[in-house]
Design brief:
Largest sheet of chain B: 2 strands, antiparallel
Largest sheet of chain A: none
Structural class of chain A: mainly alpha
Shape of chain B: globular
Number of domains of chain A: 2
Oligomer: heterodimer
Mean pLDDT of chain B: 81
Shape of chain A: flat
Distance between the termini of chain A: 48 Å
Strand order of the largest sheet of chain B: 1-2
Number of helices of chain B: 22
Number of domains of chain B: 1
Number of strands of chain B: 2
Structural class of chain B: mainly alpha
Strand content of chain A: under 5%
Largest interface: A-B, 72 and 66 residues
Radius of gyration of chain B: 22 Å
Mean pLDDT of chain A: 86
Low-confidence stretches of chain B: 494-501
Low-confidence stretches of chain A: none
C-alpha cells in the first residue's frame, strides 16, 4: 500500500471529523448538539491519531487497492452506479434490474462472449431471477416500485 | 419454565413454514462463500415487514442459526469457510474430506453444531430472565455506558486496528445523529435532502454488509473461479453418532467455550471457533494429529460457533446491546416491528420473545435434519458462479433498501454507504463498529440526554455519570476493552484472532 493510499482515507475521515466538530460546536440550539459534541471530540481525536499513525507509517497494514483490482472493479462499479442512481428510477426497477444482471454476468463471466450456450445461460438466469423478484416483491409483498415493469 | 407456555406458537403453520424455509435458505446461503450470516440476515429483513413480529424474528433467527452451521459445508468440501465462524472448521474438515472422510466430517459438524446450538439456546432461555431482572437496576447513565461499551468492544476486538475500529464506531454514532433531533426537532448534519429524515438502519445495514461483497467479487475480475468440491462417499449417520459419543471432550470444550464467548459482546463466532479449536488441541492426547484431518477439530469448532449463537442474543434481548454484528442486524429487525428490547421485553411482548427463542431451539433440530440431507446440494450451490451471486445480491440489496419506506433516497443512502464501506474496508476500517454505532447511537443519545437532565436537576453531570459502583464498573470495562487489545497490539505487534492458528 502506497503512502498516498494510507494517507488519503485517513485525511478524508479527519476532514469529516473536523466538519462534524465544527457543526456540533457552532450550531444552535446547543442542547440539540449535546451528544454530537461528545462524539465529535472522540471522532476528531481518533481521526488525528489515525492520520498521525499513517503519516509515521505506524499503522496496522491494510490490503489497500492495486491497479488490477481497480481496473477489474471499474466496469462493475459503473454498472452499479448507473443502475442505482439512474436506471432504477428512469427505466423502472425490473427493466433496470434485467439490464444490470445481464450486464454484470456479461462483464464478469469467464466463458467466451461469442459462445451461444453461455448467452443462453445468462439470459435464462436473468429471466428467472427477475421473474422471481417480480413475483416476490410486486405480487407477494406488494411493493410498488417506480414505473413497475414496462411503463 | 415460562417458555414452555409459548411453545405451541412455533408449530403454527406459517411459523413452522418460515422456520423450515429460513433453515434451508440459511444452510444454502451459509454454504455460499462470501455470503456472511450478517449479510444474509440483513437482506432478509425487508421480507419480514409483512409478517407478524414473532414470525419475522423466526425467519431471521432460523437464518442466523443455519447460516453459521451451513458455512461448515463449504469449509469442509471446498476449504473455503462459508462464514468467518467456520475458519477453524476448514483446517481439519477439508483434510478429512481430502482423505475420503468428507461425509463423516459433515455429519460430525452438523451433530456437534446441533448439540452446541441446543445448549446455547437453553442457556439463553435460563439466562435472559435473570439478566432482565438484573437489568431493571440500570438507569440512563448505565445504559449510556453500556451502549458505549458495545461499540468499544466490537471496535477493538472486531478490527485489525484499534484506532480504526474505534473511529468506525464514532462514524456510526455520527451517522445515527443525522436528521431530526428527537427532543427539540432540530435538523442536524443534513448535507443532502435524502438524509433529511435521518439514516434508516435497514438500508444502511444492507449497504454496509452487502455492497462491499458485490464490489469484492467485481474486483476479482473475469478469471475462472470454478471451485473443486471434495468427493463425498455415503456414511451411516449411526456411525457418526457413535464417533461423536466417543469424543465428549472436544464436544464439551467447544460447547463451553462457545457459550462463554457468546456472552461477551462483540467477540463472535470466529473467535469462538478458533479458541475452542486451540483449547481442544491443547487438551488432546494427540495434538500432532490436528491439521491432518482430526475429527476433534471439526467437533470443537462447530460446537463452539453454534453454542455462541444463543448466549450472544442474551445482552440484546435484555439490555438492547447486540452481542455481535448479526445480533445488531436482528435488533434492526426488532425495531422495525416496533419492539424495543430491554429489561421489560418479557413483560410487554412475552409471546414475541419466547416464540423467537423457542423457534431457535427447534431450529437447531431442523438444522441438523436438513443439514445432513442437503449438504451435498448446498455444496453445489456454493459453486454458483460468483458473477451471478454478485448480480443477485446487488438486485436484492436495491429492492430490499427500497421496500423499507418505498423511498429512492434509502436506495441512494444504501449505495453510498456500501461503496464507501468497500473502500474503507480496503484501508482497514470495518463495518461492524459502524453498524453498532448506528444502532446504539440513539440509545446512547437518549440516555445521555435523559441522564443530563436528571444530573442538572440533582447531583451534576460528572457526579451522575462517574459515580456509583455500576457506572464505575462499566467505565472500567470500557477502558479495559480499549486498553487490553491496545497493550496486546503494542506488545505483539499483531492483531487479535485468527492469524496464529
Amino acid at each position: 500500500m502506497t503512502c498516498i493510499q494510507r494517507l488519503l482515507p485517513s485525511a478524508i475521515i479527519a476532514a469529516v471529523g473536523v466538519w462534524v466538530a465544527y457543526i456540533s460546536y457552532t450550531q444552535e440550539p446547543a442542547d440539540a448538539f449535546l451528544f454530537p459534541r461528545l462524539i465529535a471530540a472522540g471522532f476528531v481525536m481518533l481521526a488525528v491519531w489515525d492520520l498521525a499513525c499513517n503519516l509515521l507509517g505506524a499503522s496496522v497494514p491494510a490490503p489497500g487497492m492495486d491497479a488490477t483490482a481497480a481496473l477489474n472493479l471499474a466496469p462493475g462499479m459503473l454498472v452499479l452506479l448507473i443502475y442505482i442512481f439512474w436506471g432504477a428510477k428512469a427505466l423502472g426497477f425490473y427493466t433496470a434490474t434485467t439490464i444490470a444482471v445481464l450486464t454484470i454476468q456479461l462483464l464478469y463471466d469467464p466463458a467466451p462472449r461469442h459462445l451461444f450456450r453461455a448467452w443462453g445461460r445468462r439470459c435464462l438466469i436473468t429471466a428467472t431471477f427477475v421473474a422471481v423478484m417480480y413475483g416476490l416483491f410486486a405480487k407477494l409483498l406488494g411493493v410498488y416500485t417506480p414505473k413497475e415493469f414496462f411503463h | 419454565m415460562e417458555f414452555l407456555y409459548y411453545f405451541d406458537e412455533v408449530f403454527e403453520p406459517i411459523a413452522l413454514m418460515l422456520l423450515i424455509g429460513g433453515t434451508i435458505g440459511g444452510l444454502i446461503l451459509g454454504a455460499t462463500p462470501g455470503l456472511s450470516p450478517t449479510m444474509a440476515v440483513a437482506l432478509l429483513i425487508p421480507f419480514t415487514f409483512h409478517l407478524e413480529p414473532a414470525q419475522g424474528l423466526i425467519l431471521l433467527g432460523a437464518a442466523y442459526t443455519s447460516t453459521v452451521a451451513g458455512g461448515a459445508v463449504s469449509a469442509i468440501l471446498l476449504r473455503i469457510p462459508g462464514a468467518p465462524a467456520n475458519i477453524a472448521t476448514a483446517i481439519d474438515g477439508y483434510e478429512m474430506a481430502r482423505r475420503g472422510r468428507g461425509a463423516l466430517a459433515l455429519q460430525l459438524s452438523f451433530l456437534s453444531s446441533a448439540v452446541g446450538g441446543v445448549i446455547g439456546v437453553l442457556l439463553l432461555i435460563f439466562l435472559t430472565p435473570v439478566l432482565a431482572r438484573w437489568a431493571l437496576a440500570f438507569g440512563p447513565s448505565h445504559l449510556f455506558w453500556l451502549a458505549i461499551l458495545g461499540v468499544t468492544i466490537i471496535g477493538t476486538l472486531g478490527s485489525g486496528s484499534i484506532v480504526k475500529g474505534l473511529l468506525s464506531g464514532c462514524i456510526g454514532f455520527w451517522l445515527s445523529t443525522i436528521g431530526f433531533d428527537d427532543i427539540l426537532g432540530v435538523q442536524r448534519f443534513v448535507f443532502h435532502p435524502v438524509v433529511s429524515g435521518g439514516v434508516n438502519i435497514i438500508p444502511a445495514l444492507i449497504g454496509l454488509f452487502a455492497i462491499p461483497q458485490v464490489i469484492t467479487i467485481f474486483a476479482k475480475g473475469r478469471g475462472r473461479t470454478d471451485l473443486e468440491v471434495a468427493r463425498v462417499a455415503s456414511h451411516p449417520i449411526g456411525a457418526a453418532i457413535g464417533e461423536l459419543s466417543q469424543r465428549p471432550r472436544a464436544l464439551a470444550i467447544g460447547t463451553v467455550t462457545g457459550a462463554i464467548i457468546g456472552l461477551i459482546p462483540g467477540v463472535g463466532g470466529q473467535i469462538a471457533g478458533l479458541v475452542a479449536y486451540d483449547q481442544t488441541k491443547k487438551f488432546s492426547r494427540n495434538p500432532e494429529s490436528f491439521g491432518k484431518g482430526e475429527p476433534d477439530g471439526v467437533i470443537a469448532a462447530e460446537a463452539a460457533n453454534n453454542a455462541m449463537v444463543g448466549p450472544s442474543l442474551a445482552p440484546l434481548l435484555t439490555l438492547s446491546i447486540p452481542g455481535s454484528p448479526t445480533a445488531a442486524v436482528l435488533l434492526g429487525g426488532l425495531l422495525i416491528h416496533g419492539i424495543f428490547p430491554g429489561s421489560d421485553l418479557f413483560e410487554r411482548h412475552p409471546e414475541v420473545a419466547w416464540t423467537f427463542i423457542n423457534s431457535m431451539l427447534l431450529g437447531q433440530i431442523l438444522m441438523l435434519v436438513f443439514g445432513l440431507y442437503i449438504a451435498g446440494a448446498a455444496a453445489r450451490v456454493a459453486q454458483a458462479p460468483q458473477q451471478v451471486m454478485a448480480a443477485i445480491v446487488l438486485a436484492l440489496a436495491v429492492f430490499g433498501a427500497y421496500s423499507v419506506q418505498h423511498s429512492m433516497g434509502d436506495v441512494y443512502v444504501m449505495a453510498f454507504l456500501g461503496v464507501a464501506m468497500y473502500f474503507l474496508e480496503r484501508f482497514g476500517y470495518s463495518a461492524a463498529p459502524i453498524v453498532l454505532g448506528l444502532i446504539l447511537g440513539p440509545i446512547a443519545e437518549a440516555n445521555f440526554v435523559q441522564g443530563a437532565m436528571i444530573a442538572n436537576a440533582s447531583v451534576g453531570l460528572a457526579n451522575y455519570f462517574f459515580s456509583g459502583w455500576l457506572n464505575l464498573t462499566l467505565i472500567a470495562i470500557v477502558l479495559l476493552s480499549i486498553m487490553f487489545p491496545l497493550v496486546r497490539q503494542l506488545r505483539f505487534g499483531g492483531t487479535v484472532g485468527a492469524a496464529k492458528i
